[in-house]
Amino acid sequence: MSMFNISMGKLQRQLYKGEYTIFEYAPMFESDFIQISKRGEVMDVHNRGRMVTVGIVCTSPSLKVPDIMLLARPAASREEYATCGCATQGKGHKSTQTLELTRLLPLKFVKISIHNGEKQQLRLKLATGRSFYLQLCPPSDAREDLFVYWEDLVYLLKPPVEAYSGTQAIPVIDTTDVPVFEEEDESPAVSLCRDSKR
């Protein structure tokens, strides 16, 4: 699992300080993403993306594949906490903000797939059936293509039946709610104000 051998990210550095002891020494692969719609559009009225740091963690050395997904967002004022201009500018970002850990999801309840490889977009499908779409927002000083590691991870996490045949694995039913993501609004009405508590 070469993706766990790259440099320590900001979420891992923060967890290393010991607030969550289970993750203090756990190998982690993480990247920053912005949330997009299924069509690949940034999901914000102001054309700035909602920043989400996704960390994939292996909590035990005896496991052959990672078992936990962590979701975090920049801890700042509500107006500032979730913006990233990389989707519209085509550039990476560099951030030193403190992160707020918002979700811990067992990977057995999340299916990660490639939504659009060219645009470096992932699809996260929860066991509840809800899907969320993310676009990689690599740091401006990235020396390698991080999305290649995400593609490797997607293949690694596929259930054996799905990886070797055309048969789909049956998802486990769960009632996990992930308000760190904003759902796409299917209604024709457009609101210029978003509820910041979502």
In short, what is this structure?
By secondary structure, the protein is of the alpha+beta class. The protein has helices at residues 10-16, 86-89, 146-157, 160-164, and strands at residues 28-36, 51-57, 68-74, 99-106, 110-116, 121-126, 131-136.
Describe the structure.
- With about 200 residues, the chain is α+β, with helices and mostly antiparallel strands.
- Helices cover about 15% and strands about 25% of the residues.
- Strands 4-3-2-1-7-6-5 form a 7-stranded antiparallel beta sheet, sandwiched between helices.
- A hairpin with a 4-residue loop joins strand 6 and strand 7 (about 130-135).
- Residues about 80-85, about 85-90, about 165-180 and about 185-198 have low confidence and may be disordered.
**Strands ordered across the widest β-sheet:** 4-3-2-1-7-6-5
Cα-atom Rg, whole angstroms? 16 Å
**Low confidence ranges:** 78-83, 87-92, 167-178, 187-198
On the 0 to 100 scale, the average pLDDT is 76
How much strand content do the residues show? 25-35%
Given the structure, what is the number of helices? 4
Number of strands: 7
Name the assembly state. Answer: single chain
What spatial form do the alpha-carbon principal axes imply? globular
Helix content: 10-25%
**Biggest β-sheet: count, sense, barrel?**
7 strands, antiparallel
Order of helices and strands: HEEEHEEEEHH
How many angstroms separate the termini? 35 Å
Q: Quickly give the structural class.
A: alpha+beta
